[in-house]
Amino acid sequence: MTDHLNIFQGIMNQLSAMGINFDEEIQGLFLLGSLPDSWEIIRTSLSNSAPNEKCEHCLAGKQNRVSFKSHLPSRKTELLELVHSHLWSNEDEDCGGALYFATFIDDCSRKLWVYVLKTKDQVLGVFKQFQASVERETGKKLKCIRTDNGKENFVCKLKKSLYGLKQAPDKGYKKFESQDGEQGYKKTSSDHCVFVQRFSHDDDFIILLLYVDDMLIVGKNASRIGELKKQLSKSFAMKDLGHAKQILGMSITRSRDEKKLYLSQKKYIERVLERFNMKNAKRVSTPLPGHLKLSKKMCPTTTEEKERMAKIPYSSAVGSLMYAMVCTRPDIAHAVGVVSRFLENPGKEHWEGCEVDTRFWHWYTLERLVLYVVCVDPSNPQLILLVLNIPPLFSYCCSIPQVQDAVDEVVDKVLARPIRPQFVIASIGPSFCLEEAHCLITGRFGCQIPVITSTSHRIFGQDANTNEFEEVQWDTFEDNDAHDDLVDEDKGVLITVGLLPGLTVDLIPLKKSRGLMTKDFMRSIRECSFSRSGSPPIGILLFSDEDIDIKPVLAKLDYAFSSETAIVGNGGSKFFYRGGTAINRSNNKASSSAAVALSFSRDIGKPPGVGETQFHVMLSTGISPIGPTYKAVYVKAMMPREYSTQLMGTTEDIDMNLDGDTLLDQIYDELGYHTHSQALYVGVTPRRKCTSQRDHPSWITMHEFHVVLRGEYEDLSVHGDGIRNYDSFRFYHRNSDLAHASCNNVSNNLRSLKQDLNHLTHDHTNSNDIDMHKKSVFGGMMFADYGRGKLLFGEPNVDASPFLENFPGVTFSGTYCNGEIAHGDLSSYEDRSKEHSYVRCSFYENSTVYLVMSYTPALPQH
Question: In angstroms, rounded to a whole number, what is the distance separating the alpha carbons of residues 841 and 383?
Answer without folding.
Answer: 41
